[in-house]
Design a protein that fits this description.
By secondary structure, this protein is of the alpha+beta class. It has one domain: NADH Oxidase, CATH 3.40.109. About 40% of the residues lie in helices and about 15% in strands.
Length: about 200
């Protein structure tokens, strides 16, 4: 009898441990939910974003498709409050950086691209940028793409502040943080934009 009670208690303890582990673990939504719920988040709480979360996001960025697997991208991950505020001050459409917990600057590296093509580097790096936005959404964080390329003044400002070499293209700055829940996804589906079989 004592052995049976001990086994039952052991099973209950195991079940409780599983429940606590599941509650503590981050549950990821399915891919289509992430795609349809992705939104441009411009309102952040100001809470910091952890290095561990940024590592997850950057791994997702580097899982993007790339011509001939050349991976012509590089990333600047920023958590320093002074740098975030400085970028907010010089980029006209990135003022929300003053409340973001972090930012990732996606850079295209033409010399690493297929045929050393700047155009291909930008396309491949754009795919990496979209992966960042989707990973952020999946993790319950918020982000917004703020354009730098092809505006020379914005590119020069980012190069100057972050020491980006002249042969590297700063494509965008993506503020990342904890959303205030003010920003909502938009339904962008339009059947008129679909052509079946031919134009």
């Amino acid at each position: 009898m004592k052995k049976a009670i001990f086994c039952i208690l052991l099973l209950l303890a195991g079940a409780l441990a599983c429940i606590f582990i599941q509650r503590g673990a981050r549950r990821m939504p399915d891919a289509l939910s992430v795609i349809h719920n992705r939104k441009s988040v411009r309102h952040f709480t100001g809470a910091p974003v952890s290095r561990a979360d940024l590592d997850i996001i950057l791994k997702a960025a580097m899982a993007a498709p790339t011509a001939v697997n050349m991976q012509p991208w590089s990333f600047i991950s920023i958590t320093d409050r002074k740098i975030l505020d400085s970028l907010s001050g010089v980029l006209p459409y990135a003022k929300m950086l003053d409340k973001a917990g972090a930012a990732i600057v996606v850079c295209a590296v033409p010399a690493k691209a297929f045929r050393s093509s700047a155009e291909i580097a930008v396309i491949d790096s754009t795919c990496a940028g979209e992966n960042i936005l989707l990973a952020v959404e999946a993790m319950g964080l918020g982000a917004v793409w703020t354009g730098v390329y092809p505006e020379k003044d914005r590119m020069d400002a980012v190069r100057s502040l972050l020491g980006v070499p002249d042969d590297i293209i700063p494509l965008n700055v993506i503020p990342i943080g904890y959303p205030t829940s003010q920003d909502k996804p938009k339904d962008k589906f339009k059947a008129k934009n679909i052509h079946w079989e031919r134009w």
